[in-house]
Write a structure and sequence with these properties.
By secondary structure, the chain is mainly beta. It has a domain at 57-100. It contains no helices and seven strands. It has strands at residues 20-24, 29-34, 39-45, 57-58, 69-73, 88-92, 97-100. Strands 4-5-6-7 form a four-stranded mixed β-sheet, with no helix packed on it. The chain has a three-stranded antiparallel β-sheet with strand order 1-2-3, with no helix packed on it. The radius of gyration is 14 Å and the shape is globular.
């Protein structure tokens, strides 16, 4: 089955810059675009993009993260991308942690 994107603007996967979340309203799937390898990783399925998940701020990495894991690093004791304080959202692609601009 071919999945098609519902495009809300001129933004496409190919021209995204930076760490972005992309949500397909038709399939209700959400993806994270990694600008380093230009690959989109499926991260969740949601009824709508405004669904919220709350994460605790961690002082050490999760013990067994799987690809697609989100975590909040405290930026002091655990700072996987050397971003520094304050706490920030990270994404694990199965090999590396990435900074996620949550703004």
């Amino acid at each position: 089955m071919i999945q098609r994107w519902v495009q809300d603007s001129d933004l496409t996967i190919d021209n995204t810059v930076g760490n972005r979340f992309l949500h397909n309203r038709s399939t209700r799937k959400t993806f994270f675009n990694n600008p380093n390898d230009d690959i989109t990783y499926p991260v969740m399925t949601a009824r709508k993009f405004s669904d919220v998940f709350n994460l605790p701020i961690l002082t050490s990495p999760p013990s067994s993260p799987v690809a697609g894991t989100f975590a909040i690093a405290d930026g002091v004791n655990w700072d996987p991308v050397s971003y520094g304080a304050p706490a920030y959202v990270t994404f694990w692609d199965g090999e590396y942690w990435y900074y996620v601009d949550a703004q």
